[in-house]
Specification:
The protein is an all-alpha fold and 203 residues long. The chain contains ten helices and no strands. The protein has helices at 3-17, 22-34, 36-58, 62-70, 72-92, 95-100, 107-119, 124-134, 142-169, 176-202. The radius of gyration is 18 Å and the shape is flat.
C-alpha cells in the first residue's frame, strides 16, 4: 500500500470538508438540536459524496462525469430549492418541537440529505481530476486511486467527527432562547446559500 497516497487523501478530504458551508451549518445545527450522533451521521453523508466523486475522477469514468457536469444546472437547481426548503424549515422550527422529535428523527434522513446536497455540485469532479493529476494519480492506476479515495473519505470523516463532538460539548450552555436564535440564524444562512445556488443557475 502506498501510504503517501493515503495520507495525501486524508489531508485532501479534511481540507475539502473543513470550510464552513451549508453542510457545515446543517451539521452544527443538527448536533446542537439532536446530539453528536446526528451531526456525525450528517457529515458522513458529505464524506460519502466526496468519496463518490473521487472515485469517478480517479477511475476515469468519463461518461458518468460528463453526464453529471452537463446536467449540473438542473442538479444545482434542485439542490438550491432543497437548501431553501431546509432553511425555511429550520427557521420556523421551535426548540420544543425539536426536542419532541429527537427519538423519531431519522439518522438515515440526516445522512441522505447531506449526501444529496453534496452531490448537487457535480463540478467537484473537475476539482478532483485536477488534484489527482497533480498528485500523480494517472488514469488506469486503479490501486493508487482506491487508496487516495479511501484517504479522502477518512480525512473528511475525521473533520465531521471533530466538529460534531466539539459542538456537542457546547450544547449544555445554550438556553431555550439561545436555541431559537440558533434555528433562525441557521435557517437564514441555509436560505442564503440556497439563493446563491439558484442565482448561479438562473443568471
Amino acid at each position: 500500500m502506498n501510504i503517501s497516497f493515503l495520507l495525501q487523501g486524508m489531508i485532501l478530504g479534511f481540507s475539502i470538508a473543513a470550510p464552513v458551508g451549508p453542510i457545515g451549518v446543517l451539521c452544527i445545527r443538527r448536533t446542537l438540536a439532536h446530539g453528536h450522533t446526528a451531526g456525525l451521521v450528517s457529515g458522513l453523508g458529505a464524506a460519502t459524496a466526496d468519496a463518490f466523486y473521487g472515485c469517478i475522477a480517479g477511475f476515469g469514468l468519463t461518461l458518468v462525469s460528463n453526464f453529471l457536469v452537463n446536467q449540473q444546472l438542473w442538479i444545482r437547481l434542485i439542490g438550491g430549492i432543497f437548501l431553501c426548503y431546509l432553511g425555511i424549515k429550520t427557521f420556523l422550527s421551535k426548540p420544543a418541537e425539536v426536542s419532541a422529535s429527537v427519538k423519531s428523527n431519522s439518522l438515515f434522513g440526516s445522512y441522505a440529505s447531506t449526501l444529496f446536497l453534496t452531490l448537487a455540485n457535480p463540478a467537484t469532479i473537475l476539482s478532483f481530476v485536477a488534484i489527482f493529476a497533480g498528485l500523480g494519480v494517472v488514469e488506469g492506476s486503479y490501486f493508487d486511486a482506491i487508496i487516495l479515495v479511501i484517504g479522502v473519505f477518512i480525512g473528511s470523516a475525521l473533520w465531521w467527527l471533530f466538529l460534531s463532538f466539539g459542538i456537542d460539548v457546547l450544547r449544555s450552555r445554550f438556553s431555550q432562547r439561545g436555541f431559537v436564535w440558533i434555528n433562525r440564524t441557521s435557517g437564514i444562512i441555509l436560505i442564503v446559500f440556497g439563493a446563491i445556488s439558484l442565482g448561479t443557475v438562473l443568471y
